[in-house]
Write a structure and sequence with these properties.
The chain is of the alpha+beta class and 120 residues long. The chain has helices at 29-48, 56-66, 100-119, and strands at 71-74, 77-80, 84-86, 95-96. The chain contains 3 helices and 4 strands, in the order ααββββα. Helix 2 (56-66) crosses helix 3.
Length: 120
């Protein structure tokens, strides 16, 4: 049951022992450091996905691919799985690589993202 806090006038303990000396539990500093390091690494990974030298549309193509496949920027080229290279202007015809299955998959994602962009 939920009670609106504006309806509460006061609180009193009706039974049991009164709690008089509450001390906070100590922090596990090793765990805090691990969580901090993990958060910093995640922020660095996310920052590496942003390329300031490309348009917002080009960045959205990269973002769409990176949702399902590991990829990275190499100057203005997008490298997918270290085997597929996508060069500007980032159309399905601008993809090259040896793995035909992965090449077709990347081309499909690019085609879908470009079609989505034209519908806006």
């Amino acid at each position: 049951m939920m009670i609106n806090s504006r309806c509460i006038k006061g609180i009193s303990i009706l039974g049991g022992e009164a709690i008089s000396n509450l001390e906070p539990t100590p922090l596990n500093m090793d765990r805090v450091k691990q969580r901090y390091a993990k958060a910093v690494n995640k922020a660095k990974e996310e920052a590496a996905k942003i390329n300031k030298n490309v348009s917002q549309e080009d960045q959205s193509i990269f973002n769409a691919i990176s949702k399902t496949l590991p990829c990275a920027w190499d100057d203005r080229n997008i490298i997918v799985l270290d085997t597929i290279t996508i060069t500007p202007p980032y159309t399905p015809d601008d993809c090259s690589g040896d793995n035909i299955y992965m090449l077709q998959r990347v081309q499909k994602v690019i085609g879908h993202e470009r079609a989505k962009g034209f519908q806006k």
